[in-house]
Amino acid sequence: MDILSRISLPKDLKNLSVSDLQDLAKEIRSFILKEVSQTGGHLASSLGVVELTIALHYVFNTPSDKILWDVGHQSYAHKILTGRKDQFSTLRQLGGLHPFINPKESPYDSFVSGHAGNAISAASGLCEAIKKAGSKNKVIAVVGDGSLSSGLALEALNFVGEKKQDLIVVLNDNKVFISKTVGAIADYLSRVMTSKKVRDIKEGIKPTLKGLPLVGERLFRIAKLIEGNLKGIVAPAILFEELGFRCIGPIDGHNIAHLVEAFENISRMKGPLLVHVLTQKGYGYTPALRDPEHFHGVGEFHLENGEAKVTDNNPTYSHVFGDVLTDLAERDPKIVAITAAMTAGTGLKPFAKKFPDRFFDVGIAEGHAVTMAAGMAMNGLRPVVAIYSTFLQRGYDEIIHDVALQNAPVIFAIDRAGIVGPDGATHHGIFDIAFLRSIPNITLMIPRDQIMLAQMLDRAFKMHGPVAIRYPRGNVVPQPLKYTGLKKGRAEVLKKGSKAVIFCIGPLCYTALEATDMMDMAIVDLVYAKPIDSATIRAMVKESRGRFLVLEDGSAKGGVGSAILEILHDIDIPIRFKLLGVPDRFIEHGSTDQLKKMLGLDIDGIKKAIRQII
Is residue 311 part of a domain? Predict the structure, then answer.
């Protein structure tokens, strides 16, 4: 790697020729492929923005000029160019590089980026801060086209355009959201139209046209109309121009010479500006180009063919959910499924294929998904909203106001609940129990295995109100316990014992059984986080003479442990207990096993906690 070995920080790019930059792009792409094939990660998006990343750091003066990435999936080249190349082998590993963008890791990371849609809003705030500081530094938000379905992004565009903020929004269009437009001609026109000569001519013509007696204003409006119609031929710019942006593009996102020329011109312009850049997810790597959805996030793989190093054909909870829902939908035509840009991840591909007219992928718009489901539910349909726990947080107001307040029979399938591993703090699904438990009318069920998940989904359709079912990422339990059936709000005693009782919920019940195999300990699967079985809890605590342990794969504050303490507030015996869950802090990235060990949610941690209470 002749060029990359000489690059430590963006300032090292400044003396390179454009030809050198194009060679550097190839080296960075090879570097990313080599490293990610060994660590896993978000590959296709990062491969698609290598040239764009180089051009931005070449033209602008980071970190004084601020680049915000929306979302961090596309940040690997950025990390490599900003002093983290030698640490790249630690990506997504415990104690290693963050999976996404985090200012604590580097001054070149301007704002946390884990969930899509926040970059333009954050950049708008940076614009105001820079303006008030009297600085002339630029702010650039790099936004994937899929993020534009986020209400937050649209709200931000509206505000930036209205306030005429000096903000550059780079729209990375990789065909996820915006339709394909003309390429070479639009690219050429965009670079020409951003040049100083053309801008001076345009600015000079405006007052001349307006100054003509009687017809000046009319001619100016006609000229603007012609200009707008011409732009409509080469770029989807009208929406953004109506919001107050000057639109440039589309530009070939893999041609560094064109990117550099356009950005150098743009750097001398005042915002708000929207630069439309066309890229390909997985660019430069045939397997990723062929299947960008699969290579969005991958584990370790063989570089020569893209095949996974470890083939895991075991079913996951997401697969079980999707298969069971598809079977139920065959019997009930009122069942519909909704997701937010996570069709494959939530296991809904079979449903979408079999019932295309009953499947809705709303894009990155979780709030809309929830309220749309409420509208369906209040008018006879049975909607199931399948969203990752961490993303459901974005629909919290809608859950309260539009679903629970009306007691609308919406079913929430909460995927990726609990600790999810190497994606880290922005993606752990640890808050759902706490934020749902406080909402009236909601029933919250947590299956310990795939058998219970199937039964809970079936039962949810027989209930007349909102129901949430949360389940983890990963494979199902190899040998699930037999289960006789659900009783609303009732826990299940899995094991009798007298020294203490362990209250658990979800797959952690199996960890508890393994940890107490030879111990005189009672184990109770709570099954329901809401309504919680207060009678069984009080009875079991009395039987164990007040000694108990609570295990939950979620926030210990406000979770089922908190619910149990609420139930026991007036119990007439002394209690000695320990709550094992996620403490009051954000948990870093690492393997799921490593993080659970760190939190005491593994066998050794449970045994240690038992010794402390007995």
Answer: no
Residue 187: what pLDDT?
54
Question: Which CATH number does the domain housing residue 408 bear?
Answer: 3.40.50.970
Is there a catalytic annotation at residue 394? yes
Question: Is the same domain home to 35 and 98?
Answer: yes
Same domain, yes or no: 67 and 172: yes
Domain count, the chain: 3
Distance CA 537, CA 257 (A): 68
Which residue out of 394, 437, 495, 596 is catalytically annotated? 394
Does a structural domain hold residue 149?
yes
CA 282: distance to chain centroid?
19
Neighbours of 597 (CB within 10 A): 15
The DSSP code sequence of 215-249 is THHHHHHHHHHHHHHHHHHH-S-HHHHHTT-EEEE
Dump the DSSP string for 76-87.
Answer: HHHHIIIIIGGG
Q: Is residue 312 part of a domain?
A: no
Domain span holding position 506: 492-613
Sign of CA pseudo-dihedral 129, 274, 156, 343: negative
Mean pLDDT score of the chain? 89
- Considering the domain architecture, whether residues 18 and 141 belong to the same structural domain is answered as yes
- For position 232, what pLDDT does the model report? 47
Peptide bond into 422 cis (omega under 30): no
Residue 585 annotated in active site:
no
pLDDT at 107: 95
Domain match, 264 and 134 both: yes
* H/E run at residue 606: helix 603-613
Per the residue annotation, which of 281, 448, 473, 547 is the catalytic one?
281
The closest of 359, 317, 313 to 339, measured between CA atoms, is 359
Q: For residue 235, what are its two tokens?
A: 């770029």
Query: 40 and 127 share a domain?
Result: yes
Active site residue 281: yes
In this structure, the number of other CB atoms found within 10 A of the CB of residue 60 comes to: 22
β pairing state of 500-504 and 492-495: unpaired
Q: Residue 181: pLDDT above 50?
A: no
Structure-token match 């438990």, residue found? 437
| Cβ atoms within 10 Å, residue 438 | 11
Residue 109 and residue 231 share a domain = yes
Residue 184 confidence (pLDDT) above 80: no
Q: How far is residue 474's CA from residue 461's CA, in Å, rounded to a whole number?
A: 25
Is pLDDT above 90 for 221?
A: no
Give the model's pLDDT for residue 180: 40
Tens digits of per-residue pLDDT, 342-368? 999 999 999 999 999 999 999 889 999
Q: What is the CATH number of the domain that holds 570?
A: 3.40.50.920
Name 4's Cβ contacts closer than 8 Å, sequence gap at least 6: 24, 27, 28, 31, 80, 85
- Residue at 303 is within a domain: no
Q: Which of 261, 366, 552, 588 is catalytic?
A: 366
114: number of Cβ within 10 Å: 19
426 alpha carbon, distance to own chain's centre: 8
* pLDDT at position 176: 58
